[in-house]
Amino acid sequence: MTPPAKGPPTFLPRTLLWQTFASLAIMLILAFSAWSEIVRHFELEPRARDLAQTVTSIVNLTRTALINADADRRLELLIDLTAMEGIRVYPAEATDRITPLPDTRAMELLTRDVRRELGPQTRFAGSWEELEGFWVSFKLDPSDTDEYWVMLPAERIQRPRPLEWLGWGVAIMAFALLGAYLIVFRIGRPLRQIAEAARLIGHGKQPAPLPEDGPGEIAEVASAFNQMAGDLAQLESDRAVILAGVSHDLRTPLARLRLGVEMTGAPSGDIRAMVSDIEEMDRVIGQFVDYGRNDDAPPEPVVLAPLIEDIVSADRLRGHAVDTHLHPNATVLAQTLPLRRALRNLIDNAERYGKPGQTLSVSTEAVNGSWKIALRDEGPGIPEDQLERLKRPFVRLDEARGNTQGAGLGLAIVDRFARAHGGRFDLSNHPDGGLVASITLPATKPPAARSG
């Protein structure tokens, strides 16, 4: 069986669970980011107005305190403001080393509102003489030439505890994503159960009924699947009965017909021709039965060398030349009888369509944790574009192989066997001529030798 073509590599998750979770996570993150931006945008102006009122009040109170205080007690007043309120006042000089405030929209709104209250001559700084803070200039009287700096601690201006707000935001996002995961998991689990049950049906097994609880849509799908599985099981049972009847009711008259032909006393050439036709009819019936058969036996370790040698020994007794190149430890996990039927079909196909006097070659080869059983004939081969088509039921390339016998099920039986055992069946033309049919099956350890 040709493996499905793989698409281009992608970093996106491939399962429904993680695709849906990733979509919900992206939407939640975008929604949270948009919400944060909206809150920040509409919060800036009210907060700037409140801070500007606070700054204006502090500057006005400081100015009033300095104006009304005795000249000899102003130094004591400045010390008290620094110690108790964290407010520092210094005289402004032309040589002051200052740095500007951060160039942000929040600071722009704040300074605009403060200038509106204190006057356009108000200056601002982010540091004065390397002392960090929020610095605002003022005069005791608009007509004075002397100017002062008042410093407010930066924590009074900046947004309080940004890391704490970020932590709460991350916690909220984590809870939202956890909820999204639980929702998607609740949807994905029934789908995985249905997929597993479908795989069991595909391998010819009857799965346990799916639970029909949960959300209405999921329960409805599970109920429909259980009904389908029951109908398929009934069809399988009816098919087995029909196949058993066909095998018995047709092969018994054929056996009597062959006996009657051999006892007619007709010329030996006519008898051989009629017996050959009867044998071909019996072989076609056998192919139909094999194709529709559903073996329930569990797979077991099968050592290939003795099995293949036993199968080809009958061909050698009939005068066919068969070379074998078998690894003594080649062991696969398979059902023994279906494996024998598959190999028998390949050998019969090679003998029927190969050239007279050919030598068949059977070999085993280890391939990536599997064992490959290859059979080569010396026939005319098959057109490359028809190799896959030959695996389908009832397909025969008579014009290429020169033989009209068979029902066209032999290779389809082999392909069905390989797929049912987790392997693959391949056809290819050998470079030196002839067709190579190969079955690749999972490797396993040889069975332990029995003692005693």
From TrEMBL:
ATP-binding as UniProt keyword: yes
Record's subcellular location: Cell inner membrane
Annotated GO MF terms: ATP binding; phosphorelay sensor kinase activity
GO cellular component, one term: plasma membrane
Signal peptide positions (record): none
One Pfam family cited in the UniProt record for this chain: HAMP
InterPro entries the record matches: 2C_sensor_his_kinase, HAMP_dom, HATPase_C_sf, HATPase_dom, His_kinase_dom, HisK_dim/P_dom, HisK_dim/P_sf, RisS_PPD
Residue ranges crossing the lipid bilayer per the database entry: 16-35, 165-184
First-listed, main subcellular location of the protein, grouped into a coarse class: membrane
PROSITE patterns in UniProt: HAMP (PS50885), HIS_KIN (PS50109)
UniProt keyword annotations, A-Z: ATP-binding, Cell inner membrane, Cell membrane, Kinase, Membrane, Nucleotide-binding, Phosphoprotein, Transferase, Transmembrane, Transmembrane helix, Two-component regulatory system
Histidine kinase domain span: 245-445
EC number: 2.7.13.3
Coiled-coil ranges from the UniProt annotation: none
Catalytic activity: ATP + protein L-histidine = ADP + protein N-phospho-L-histidine
HAMP domain span: 185-237
Keyword match Ribosomal protein: no
Membrane topology, as annotated: Multi-pass membrane protein
Protein name per Swiss-Prot or TrEMBL: histidine kinase
Protein species of origin: Nitrogeniibacter mangrovi
Organism classification: Bacteria, Pseudomonadati, Pseudomonadota, Betaproteobacteria, Rhodocyclales
